[in-house]
Design a protein that fits this description.
It comes from Trichonephila inaurata madagascariensis. The protein is about 35% helix and about 20% strand. By secondary structure, the protein is an alpha+beta fold. The strands form five sheets. A six-stranded mixed sheet has the order 4-8-9-10-11-12, with helices on both faces. The longest helix is centred in the first third of the chain and has 24 residues, at about 10-30. About 45% of the residues are buried. The model is unreliable at about 50-55 (pLDDT under 50).
Amino acid sequence: MASESILLSDLLQCLIECSQKAARIAQIFRDENDLFQLLVEEKSPVEKDKRVFRDFKTLADVLVQETIKKDVGQKFPTLTSNIQGEEQNSFQNSLGESILVELSDSEEDTVALLSQVFDGKDHIARSLASAAHSKDLACEKQYSSPCRIPADSIGIWIDPIDATAEFIQGKNEETDDLGIQHYGLQCVCVLIGAYELQSGKPILGVVNQPFYKKETESSRWESRFYWSLNYDPEFVTSDTLQNESQREEKVIVLSCTESKELQDMISTKYKIVHASGAGYKSLLVSCKKVDLYVLSQGTTHFWDTCGPHALLLTQGGGIVKFNEVLNATDVKNYKDLLDKQIKYSLKGENVPTGSFRNADGFIAYRDAEDVIELIELLHERGYKSRK
């Protein structure tokens, strides 16, 4: 029996609308400052990324992830088992009760479920349930194409709220002269990436900034989304990615935790900026605000990179493994880098989170020449892989 095929443009539209719904849920949580601290739960030792000093999950993460899984699964049932994300779908309320977050088609059921977490504060439970089940957050059709793909050949990775620490702290940071936020709510992103199961190649990406800009009159947050389709012969990006760089100097964005040795070497040729959130830093590359995002440490996972990776591939760039490229002797051009891309896969039951860690670090780029020049610099300076 032939596999069900779906229109890629329909899947794209679905994921964009899911990201808008996710952004609204995140905004509602941040609007409820008095309740927000009650909803933060430090991750259990089983879930915790041992390489991160303090790693949190919130009900917002779990609710966003389960909302996306529900909506995509309803429209494309074949995809349901291939939708995976960062969070487990359980949460513990302030009474110590463990609550499984599973969404049905009933908004009232979701209200009842969320009320258990909010200890009876029904107004916030109703606001969130309304957003999770809303049909009003649909946006105009972004792209139409006859291109189809077998539904059972696609996997999806979700990071429901990337830069969770910035989401929790809730600071509103001003941009610098490059238009970059170094920390704060603007660094928070919803990341959704679809990839081919056989090749591991990202084919569709959606990145949404729930806190892109604050409206002056209402003080309400405005979201912004970015998308790409990267499936031959369709190579298309959203208008929000059609930026022209006005910079004269080369800029690399790093995490502030990068080693002094690496930062000192890079600073001999590039301007260095620091920012929070793996998704946001990759987005800076896509939006041409920086040239490269370099991460030498294995502190990210598939859910952090799959969505942004699709954006960059469509732009002629990609995300390559840092240590692999650093140690290679055959990286001379664009095609050579295509062989070094991160490849994505599904996770099975009882498989440790570390199996989906980008253990080699990575370099996110738009232009292959920028990667080659950086690697040449590191070789000249005698930088050695720490793996």
